[in-house]
């Protein structure tokens, strides 16, 4: 919506394990053509629950 961030992913790596959080708007409205048409003021932050670094 007008260049606003709608998601925030924060990651940190320590001893081969990834931790972090995912923050999003509690309410997000998407129009029929796939555009974000509304973002609510309340946010929800969810922890990264499972992670594993792969080879490469």
Structural class: mainly beta
- Biggest sheet: strand arrangement: 1-2-5
Average pLDDT for all residues? 85
Secondary-structure element string: EEEEE
According to DSSP, the number of beta strands is: 5
Overall, the morphology is elongated
Q: Determine the fraction of residues in helical runs and give it as a percent range.
A: under 10%
Report the biggest beta sheet as strand number plus sense, adding barrel if it closes.
Answer: 3 strands, antiparallel
Unreliable stretches covering 5 or more consecutive residues:
none
How many domains in all?
A: 1
| N-to-C CA distance | 36 Å
| Strand percentage | over 45%
Task: State the helix count.
Answer: 0
What is the CA-based Rg, rounded?
Answer: 15 Å
Topology:
Elements: E1 7-14, E2 17-25, E3 28-30, E4 36-39, E5 43-47
Antiparallel strand pairs: 1-2, 2-5, 3-4
Characterise the protein shown here.
The termini are far apart. The protein is elongated, with a radius of gyration of 15 Å. It is built from no helices and five strands. The protein has a three-stranded antiparallel beta sheet with strand order 1-2-5, with no helix packed on it. A two-stranded antiparallel ribbon has the order 3-4. The chain has one domain (7-47). β3 (28-30) and β4 form a beta hairpin. 0% of the residues are buried. The model has no long low-confidence stretch (mean pLDDT 85). The chain has strands at 7-14, 17-25, 28-30, 36-39, 43-47. With 56 residues, it is an all-beta fold.
